[in-house]
Amino acid sequence: MTPPSQRAFFIVSALLFFASAALTMLWCTPAPAMPACAAHAAATPHDLSSQGWPGAIASFVGMWTVMMVAMMLPSLVPMLRRYREAMARTGETRLGRLTTVAGVGYFLVWTVVGMAAFPAGVALAAIEMPQTAAQAVPIARGAIVLIAGALQFTAWKARRLACCQEAGRGIPLPSDAGTALRHGMRLWLDCVRCCANLMAILLVVGVMDLRAMTLVTVAITAERLAPAGQRGARVVGALVIAAAVSAIAPYVF
Question: What is the total count of domains within the chain?
Fold first, then answer.
């Protein structure tokens, strides 16, 4: 029988997921898909000048963080559950508090990544591609997606996936807030090593594209939670390669 604290953990996680998913949909639906890291609220010089850098960064980072919670929480929950179970075996009673701190540490790093991505997005949005080079953009985008799909079949991906599936089993001692925060950051490191190629697909297709966001989320979650994770990774890789080839073909042939 599931302990009450464990049930509360899953209920809170589910509520947080649905809330972040709903906010992401509200944020993204009015805006067209934006290539690369283009910011939701400051993708144009006009928007940037009207809000200023602090307001524009805050708007984008807020959107980015909520989006990351919606995307990554389904695959993070098993890591946090293993972390809670490992702490419980030591007699630790502050399971809820320390698990929350670990989760904050995980998403804190994603927030910093969003802050770093914002200036790059603004710079890319300000570049005016000449008409003669317009064809190179979808080809380059498709090539990145193709490489991301091919990486799903490599030994590197298999090692990273195995590491990610085991993340959270061991706990660093002593169990305090600082250690829990650092543990969450290490969970992020394991996570991003495993899903960097899939996240690259989202960045080049469009961070505001709800369809791309949903597909990448499903792919990341499936390959980590499925019993045969590596087989699932290969299936994802095959689908990604097929999509990349179909996207590039009209510009090549």
Answer: 1
